[in-house]
Model the fold of this input.
Amino acid sequence: MDPRTRLVLLAATVTILLAGGGPAAAQSCGAPRAEAELFHATGDYKPQVWGDTLVYSRYDQGAYVVMSRDLDTGQTGPVSPTTNRQWDPDIHADRIVWQDDSGPDADIVVFDRISGEERRLELAGSQYSPAIWGDTLVYEEFIGHRMNLVVHDLATDEARRLPVGPVAA
Done:
């Protein structure tokens, strides 16, 4: 199956399953059985795809875990061995990012798929909803009663804050 067709079927499958349809409904739209059975009925969310790799969050045995699936081989497993409260993954090339709520504040984690290195950005306040493209990481930051959008250059480790205003207490 060509990559564009696979991506369209995967998007349709995820939409059907997240809307409450089951594997049979997804297969009726042409999704392969493996993709139709990919997601648990209620425990998987926020799928993101890059090439042949899909990442998503899964609620499993009392913890939220970022999962990765190779769409060619079907191999699926957790991205990080430290699983607890991992949310909102995103992927670009060899990096996977997510929000980790296991500490007192929410932090962003950057995982390098080639080296296996996991880097936690431990910054003031809490960081949410990461998105990555190349060396550019963007996330929401909450410090005090103020929300910022942050553009973080991973190559230089420089961050630029874009204030969006106060948050009602």
In short: The chain has a mean pLDDT of 80. The first strand starts at residue 44 and ends at 50. The helical segments are 3-18, 23-28, 33-36. The radius of gyration is 17 Å.
